[in-house]
Amino acid sequence: MDTPSLPPPSMGYSPPVATPNTLMPRPERRPTPLAFSSPSTFSPLPPQQNQLPRTSSQTPRSLSSGDGVHVNTPLSQFSTPPGPPLFSPPLRPAAVPFRATPTTPQPVPFSSGSTLPTSSSPHYSNGSHELSLHRSAGLDESTFESPYVLFSAHKVLKRKKLANVPCLGFGALVSPGREIAPGPEVVHREPYRCQSCGAYANLYCEILIGSGQWQCVICQRLNSSDGEYIVPSKEDLQNWPELSSSAIDYVQIGNKRPGFIPVSDSRMTAPIFLVIDECLDEAHLQHLQGSLHAFVDSLPPTTRLGVITYGRTVSVYDFSEGSVASADVIPGDKSPTEESLRALIYGTGVYLSPVHASLPVMHTIFSSLRSYKLNIPEASRDRCIGTAVEVALAIIRGPSADMTRGIIKRSGGNCRIIACIGGPSTYGPGSVPYSVSHPNYEYMERTAMKWMEHLGQEALRHETMVDILCAGTCPVRIPVLQPLAKSSGGVLILHDDFGEAFGVNLQRASMRASGSHGLFEIRCSDDILVTQVIGPGEEATADSHETFKNDSSFYIQMHSVEETQSFSLSMETKGDIKNDYVYFQFAARYSNIYQAGISRVITVRLPTVDSVSMYLRSIQEDVAAVLIAKRALLHAKTSSDAIDMRLTVDERVKDIALKFGSQPPKSKLYQFPRELSTLPESLFHLRRGSLLGNIVGHEDERSVLRNLFLNASFDLSLRMLAPRCLMHHEGGTFEELPAYDLAMQSNAAVVLDHGTDIFIWLGTELAAQEGKSAAALAACKTLAEELSEQRFPAPRILSFKEGSSQARYFVSRLIPAHKDPPYEQEARFPQLRTLTPDQRTKLKCSFIHFDDYSFCEWMRSLKLVPPEPS
Question: Where is the region Disordered (predicted)?
Fold first, then answer.
């Protein structure tokens, strides 16, 4: 097929005209300063050269939706090549003693430390002739909905004064590791990147089809595609995935790690080390043994597993004896010596063995565990957690981690250490005194925290994550253990006991797909300033990524890349916006569990508007509520901070009404904007729930929930923020209702999903009917398992009857709407209209009076009119 050439230059110069095929000059841009977790400004870079700005008002594409870009549905309209396997946390069915609904996991996104394509410098026109410019056509822009990025609004206000109102704010939740079906388009080559700012070629770029040059949407510079984009017509540009899809995975197959030997399934070769507390009482030990037996039975046969127990010493179990279990013992009072590690690493012992080869021995080890016999309180028992993790890490990094026929194999993906802990670290490195009343406790705690953080960083360098699963009633001193999990890219989870929920999380932690060496890049139009990033990572150093002459992007080193994570971005406009669109590009580069290098590039553009009402209608209230909550939780490090943040939430709600609401005639109260009718209720749940409220008993629990929430995906964050209430009806159906205490009807069964907890409540009338209550309870448990099937961490599922002591967990999470007048109750809880007068009377008499505000009372205390239900 012949390639058309560019038109010959004209003899004279005529001023350029603003058409879709012409690039117009534009004032110089300035780099965008960004911040991670807290605002931070970088020194400005020199102005860019050789840039040809695009037109701001005309484009061959048009929006088919007045609400702009939507971000809730996956891309389904393209025929894509098969991508990498998808991540799905649920597990295979486990053996007794607990129930789980597992499936095979799917890998998470990957990062590529790839080099840039060797493209030659583009040639530019000197203005002697007009350039014919084209963009891929025939594309409905409203279909480019990105499930990886959720913006708080689908439109951006042009006026800086209105756009930057802090009470509402503008931002996005980015989940670069999320996996959906169908996945992004897959491209097996290097991406084309702007040689000026580093941005990636995308579907919004202007293309010169005669020369193949493309214009960057971030800095407007023309770049070469090495002739790749030279086509006869603009319709042919749709053959390039990056020019027709908003999300692209650039995949590099290969491995740069020295000593790596490819195996048939590197996913299954990544080892798991169990680090088990041997200082447990009999009751806790029995639960733990049941969970461990079920766990090892649920693992794929090729999974390599190691077992370490710890108390005052560290016992490393050796699987080289075949059917006999033996262990090498190392003192726990200090870090292991080089001699002791050399004996383990270069010895004949096999400390990581495939499950299919050593399953009977593993069951023998778990059955042989004995309860703690000395008469010493749980908190005062010697536990050398730090030494145990050090030993596990040393064995994982080899070199003889797995000896098979004399060949040394290194793990093909992220390794994982799972620590099963029942008490604090009180012995050896990283330990604290038994009692918090020790005169030097604060100093020793800070020292232990630093040591644990360093150990976690060392684990991360060796592609090993440390998950800490705590259970029991003994305080485990969360501030000491949290740095170890956080800095290695793992998680810390609290459980009531070592039973069902612990066992499910043990399985899901081991099968969680995770990418490593992650680098997250954020680029925006020069009109947008990213002021804060909250998420599972830290600001990347300059030597960890490529540098470009005019790169104003922000780089984050990701501790791990998982589906269950997200980054929260807060943004502002740097001035009044002149253009009709603003652009956002996010790139996650990492190595997946198969050691393939991936660069996932997501590009989104949002329309800009002058109308405040159009902007308010485009606001995604759930996303906005989650972003506000994450910003508040970032500062709620202590219980006193949480009280301050509750007052901050009150002021924020009041300011939103003052800035965007209205004041009815002859009224001193402000009307909350009707476009945001559900937002204040979500924030009311925030201030009184488990994140900022006082319904969580211990500060350790609040700390764990806070860290989990700050890094959690949108779905889990939303459920942790605002619980979901479902009432059971005969026939096994469920009706979704507002999370109000009016749902506590004696003849009903109710399921309340609060993210990390799912509660099943049975009314007294229903509980008295044995047959009906059993059927309702079974239906509710099935629903609870379905709701949490793919959730990590798996929530605890509690069921109880009306009036029982455990029912307080359920009641405290519901809005006390029984205090409101009947007309307001019916307006906000329409299901009441189906009750008979007798049932209404019984319901009213069942409530106990207490001082907590209802939602309507809280709004009026802020001098606001409660918004009408949507």
Answer: 1-132
Q: Hey, which residues does 737 pair with through a beta bridge?
A: 725
Rounded CA-CA distance 842/830 in Å is 17
| CA pair distance 618, 727, nearest whole angstrom | 31
Structure token digits, residue 613 = 């009402």
Cα 249 from chain centroid? 19
φ/ψ (deg, to 5) at 733: -90, 160
Residue pair 561/518 in contact by the 8 Å Cβ criterion: yes
CA distance 144 to 78: 11
pLDDT greater than 70 at residue 673: yes
Burial class (CB in 10 A: 0-12, 13-18, 19+), 462: middle
243: which residues sit within 8 A by CB, 6+ positions away? 136, 201, 202, 203, 205, 207, 229, 237
Dist. CA 794–CA 469, nearest whole Å? 12
- Rounded distance, CA 53 to CA 65, Å? 26
Q: Which residues pair with 706 in a beta bridge?
A: none
R_g over Cα of the chain: 29
Q: Strand, coil or helix: what is 256? A: coil
64, 142 Cβ separation under 8 angstroms: yes
CA distance 161 to 612: 12
Question: For the stretch 765-791, what's the b/e string if a residue is b when 16 or more beta carbons lie within 10 angstroms of its beta carbon?
Answer: bbbeeeebbebbbebbbebbbebbbbb
pLDDT of 537-583, one tens digit each?
888 887 777 778 777 888 999 888 888 899 999 999 999 999 999 99
Tokens of 381: 């028992």
Structural tokens at position 159: 């006026």
Which tokens is 832 given? 């009441």
- The mean pLDDT value for 613-629 works out to 95
pLDDT range class, residue 92, cuts 50, 70, 90 = very low
Assigned token pair, 618: 């485009």
Phi and psi of 195, rounded to 5°?
Answer: -75, -10
Question: In angstroms, rounded to a whole number, what is the distance separating the alpha carbons of residues 811 and 798?
Answer: 13
10's CB contacts (< 8 A; 6+ apart) are 128, 129, 130
464-471 and 415-421 as β-strands: parallel, antiparallel, unpaired?
Answer: parallel
Of 443, 419, 452, 448, the closest CA to residue 431 belongs to 448
CA distance 533 to 554: 10
CB atoms closer than 10 angstroms to residue 586: 25
> Which residues have C-beta within 8 Å of that of residue 778, sequence separation ≥ 6?
none
Q: Residue 398: which region, alpha, beta or left (left: phi > 0; alpha: psi -120 to 50)?
A: left
Residue 367's pLDDT is what? 95
Least confident of 132-146, 250-264, 508-522, 726-740: 132-146
- Indicate the helix (H) or strand (E) that contains 617: helix 612-617
**Backbone φ/ψ region at 104: left (φ over 0), alpha (ψ -120 to 50), beta:** beta
C-alpha distance across the termini of the chain, in Å:
58
Distances (CA, A) of 311 to 222, 287, 308, 386, 453: 64, 19, 10, 11, 21
The pLDDT value given to residue 147: 87
Provide the phi-psi class of 344: left if phi over 0, else alpha when psi is between -120 and 50, else beta: alpha
Positive or negative: CA dihedral 692, 698, 699, 705: negative
Between CA 309 and CA 294 the distance in angstroms is 18
Q: Which amino acid is at 264?
A: S
Note the pLDDT tens digit of each residue in 152-188. Answer: 999 999 999 989 988 888 999 999 988 887 888 899 9
| Residue type at 485 in one-letter notation | A
Nearest residue to 613 (alpha-carbon basis) of 529, 687, 676, 521 = 676
Contacts for 346-351: CB closer than 8 Å, 24+ residues apart = 346/399, 346/400, 347/400, 348/320, 348/403, 349/316, 349/318, 349/320, 350/318, 350/319, 350/320, 350/402, 350/403, 351/306, 351/316, 351/317, 351/318, 351/319, 351/395, 351/401
Q: Within 10 Å of residue 319's Cβ, how many Cβ atoms?
A: 24
Please determine, for residue 233, whether its predicted confidence score (pLDDT) is greater than 60.
yes
For residues 238 and 136, what is the distance between their CA atoms, to the nearest angstrom?
6
